[in-house]
Design a protein that fits this description.
The complex is a heterodimer of chains A (about 110) and B (about 110). Chain A is mostly beta strands and about 110 residues long. Chain A is built from no helices and 11 strands. The chains are: A mainly beta (about 110), B mainly beta (about 110).
């Protein structure tokens, strides 16, 4: 089956710094990828849709200047949390769609902002 | 509004008992529904999708458009079924994003 990887799996940073999270489709190409945020014991919340070669589409309430998304190639999307603050601490998950509209999920990245 | 509702946060059953995890949806278009499962310390993975009408690991789910439901069922629960289960609705076209329910934690006791 299709595999999606994320890097890093865990990151701890100081408040005010920026953090980049990578999402890769390992054995297939993805013109679209999705970024989710999952709070403890909560469901996944879609943050944005990453589009290869064009601007990302952000969900309502998600700050595009805060969460920068770049889909540089057909196998890589990056999410940069700029000027991170403790409230940005969360579990970030990416996914890429399969041919039947299912989603293949990455393992997630745990971000902790001190 | 597009919405997926899973009314139970936690469902606890004994091994061998039947299981039904409820899912209701709200969507004006033709729905594409999925069940995803997340085992402890593992990534979210697809369990089944309504369009394929398949049975995976003994689980089945039937789309009932009249009741706008997509409940997940298994006749005899196993301990290894213990996990978080998310019902999801696909919107937005051929590669649409997913709207997730809040999830139900299934705990199967020995």
């Amino acid at each position: 089956g299709a595999v999606v990887s994320q890097h890093p799996s865990r990151v701890i940073c100081k408040s005010g710094t920026s953090v980049k999270i990578e999402c890769r489709s390992l054995d297939f190409q993805a013109t679209t990828m999705f970024w989710y945020r999952q709070f403890p014991k909560k469901s996944l919340m879609l943050m944005a849709t990453s589009n290869e070669g064009s601007k990302a589409t952000y969900e309502q309430g998600v700050e595009k200047d805060k969460f920068l998304i770049n889909h540089a190639s057909l196998t890589l999307s990056t999410l940069t949390v700029t000027s991170a603050h403790p409230e940005d601490s969360s579990f970030y998950i990416c996914s890429a769609p399969g041919i039947y509209n299912e989603q293949f999920f990455g393992p997630g990245t745990r971000l902790t902002v001190l | 509004a597009q919405r997926v509702t899973q009314p139970e946060k936690l469902l606890s059953v004994f091994k061998g008992a039947p299981v039904e995890l409820k899912c209701n949806y709200s969507y004006s278009g033709s729905p594409e529904l999925f069940w995803y499962v997340q085992y402890s310390r593992q990534r979210l993975q697809l369990l089944l999708r309504h369009i394929s009408r398949e049975s995976i690991k003994g689980f089945t789910a039937d789309l009932n458009k009249g009741e706008t439901s997509f409940h997940l069922k298994k006749p005899f629960a196993q301990e290894e079924d213990s996990a978080m289960y998310y019902c999801a609705l696909s919107v937005g076209g051929s590669q649409g994003n997913l709207i997730f329910g809040k999830g139900t934690k299934l705990s199967v006791k020995p």
